Amino acid sequence: MKKALLGYCCLLLVFNASAQKTNWYINANAGLFSFSGISAVNTSFINYSSDLNIAYTNNPYGAKSGFGYGLSGRVQHIYFKHFIAGIDAGYEKQSSRVLINGISGYTPGTTKDGHTNIDYKFINIFPFAGYRINMQKIHLDITGGVDLAYCLSAKENGSATATDGTIFTTNTDRKTITTDIRPRIQGTFSYHKAGIYIAYSHGFGNYMDGYIGGINEAYARLLRFGISYQLK
Question: 10-56, pLDDT tens digit by residue?
Fold first, then answer.
């Protein structure tokens, strides 16, 4: 990944010499993060041991979306005939969610309500290329590339209330992956210096890599809604 990123940056420096215009932006986004794959689930249960006084979610890799956010900076070059290329880099915190419908190891084992999130922190780099469509005062940039997501941490945080009112919580490290490569497509509408964008990415990295028994596959998917502001 480092070699590919270095190669892209070198190409960007070469192409910068022929760029007609270079712009700098700051971005903020809200994200809906979830998992796909055979092991992604909508519901799971908490395993509880009274002897060890520990609790963890049996399968925390939720197909339901949790809420996240991100902040980044972007440099973008505009070339002849409206071709564009650039790179975006920043920090993101994303969460997946699974509903909890039971407590294993406790009587009564049913729950009134509950859910578990896996909270991720990423450094994300997005090299991209695309095309700009001019519509009078509004510009539409259609871009594609890959998210190079470096996982800083992953923590399971769950809470469920049994039918007798007992509350169970989980707090477990779930960092199983260091880097995820996610193909990404994005559309950005801009007017003067302000812009809005929507982006979707789907990862290649298996977040259940190393799990034993059966087929274990969970892949990240992320839908972003963002705003941008042109600094230069």
Answer: 544 544 555 578 999 999 999 999 999 999 999 999 999 988 889 99
Domain extent for 116:
30-76+90-120+129-185+192-230
Q: Is residue 199 part of a domain?
A: yes
**Token pair for residue 47?**
């395993």
Q: What is the pLDDT of residues 162-194, one digit of tens each?
A: 999 999 999 999 999 999 999 999 999 999 999
Angstrom distance (rounded) from CA 159 to CA 139 = 45
Cα of first residue to Cα of last residue in the chain, in angstroms, is 30
Contact 134/168 with Cβ under 8 angstroms? no
Say which DSSP state 58 is in. S
**Is the distance from CB of 201 to CB of 148 less than 8 angstroms?**
no
Q: How far apart are CA 12 and CA 15, in angstroms?
A: 5
Number of domains composing the chain: 1
Whether the Cβ atoms of residue 112 and residue 84 lie closer than 8 Å to each other: no
